[in-house]
Amino acid sequence: MPLPIFEKSVFETILARRSVRKFKAKKVEHSTIRNLLEAAVRAPTAIHQEPWAFVIIQDKPLLKSLSDQAKPIFLAEMHQHRAEHADYKLDIFDTPDFNIFHNANTLIVICGKTASPFFAADCWLAAENLMLAACAMELGSCVIGSALPAFNVPSVRAKLRIPDNFSVVAPIIIGYPDEEITPALRKNPVVFSSITAH
Ligand SMILES: Cc1cc2nc3c(=O)[nH]c(=O)nc-3n(C[C@H](O)[C@H](O)[C@H](O)COP(=O)(O)O)c2cc1C
To answer: Whole-model pTM?
Structure first.
């Protein structure tokens, strides 16, 4: 597979990655998706299980319909845990026009084999690899955690051919950014201790 040439260093790419929620109409090519998956599966994997598998959706009406299914399920789940999420604004999920996938035309869903002891960790590492590779290729990405409850619906799982022994871990939208991307602001790292032998 021809590998893309990246101009940014790994560290520059880490600093440049942001969640992108506005995309150009330009389609993400299959060869680009293959490169992203290639990056994903290079992630560390506990006891070399490689417990991941992927669903690729490049069908906007299907994404809109998944979004419409996901919103009420996500809202119901969040209301159940209202006290924990008191400062999280949920009104947008009640808005008919709001698309949880931010109108992206590509969604990559990372699924994990539940029998594998560290499947979630492995899949999240694959997710970050994928998102950093996307950033290096001038693509934008965003994890869509609000879609997760919808992937437990049997009809959704059947449509996406997700086997019973896999859970959806990380739904990630991908596309060409149509917004200005500025570096992320973060708090300074908290260091509990830094111990050096004398
Ligand atoms: C587990 C997880 C779930 C997320 N779910 C959503 C989501 O449903 N919708 C969304 O727009 N962003 C979602 N995000 C993106 C975060 O809002 C974003 O990472 C955070 O605001 C920090 O911004 P940055 O990624 O640009 O640095 C999620 C991120 C993570 C890690």
So the answer is: 0.95
